[in-house]
């Protein structure tokens, strides 16, 4: 566990967290507006779990499995659930199928909200910004914010995490790509421009390292579990190398071995915060 007193001791990669401010820079605000418009367009057509690309589909399914594996030990029958950045609604449906007492989803894009409502008609789904959630203090037992924080300007990330913690009664789960992942570091050395282009395509404007992610959540009254980092073959690797789907089992074995040998160098991070 990580607490505030030990915060500086647990900055595992010795990186100083990026400073945050109370005011977003104009360029960050413009970027956020552009992303909002982008997500409205994206929400109407994206098919992450039914992608025509095998490796894209596999990546999202594998990450879903890791995240729901974490949620399964936290979400008790009858507990309420909120997915912040609910996208196409798969996590909301998963929670509903597990017997959550109340299932909720919010997203910046109305297109995504409509898709979640269609998938889980019983859920409460609203369009809103992650920094202003329409829930009372400690209203929701388990809150998930998966693959969202990297789309939020650095200056706003701390405020968003505080808002997530405000509405959480028990557990908060945040997932995000690891900018310190071994594959990403190697790719930046070999083709920095291509990596930047791919990040821009998917809206990654504020990627984090493990230590930076933990620093966002450290505050009095919360315990942060050690961040779990997983290796999941990035879609771009499978597509660029034209790997056949028959290599799925081999990829799985390599990923699990990497999880054991270089556990902090994976590309998918999962952080669990618990209110105490």
From TrEMBL:
GO molecular function: S-adenosylmethionine-dependent methyltransferase activity
Pfam families: Methyltransf_11
Stretch list, region Disordered: 1-45
Comp. bias (Basic and acidic residues): 1-43
Coiled coil: none
Stretches assigned to the Methyltransferase type domain: 82-170
Protein name stated in the entry: Unannotated protein
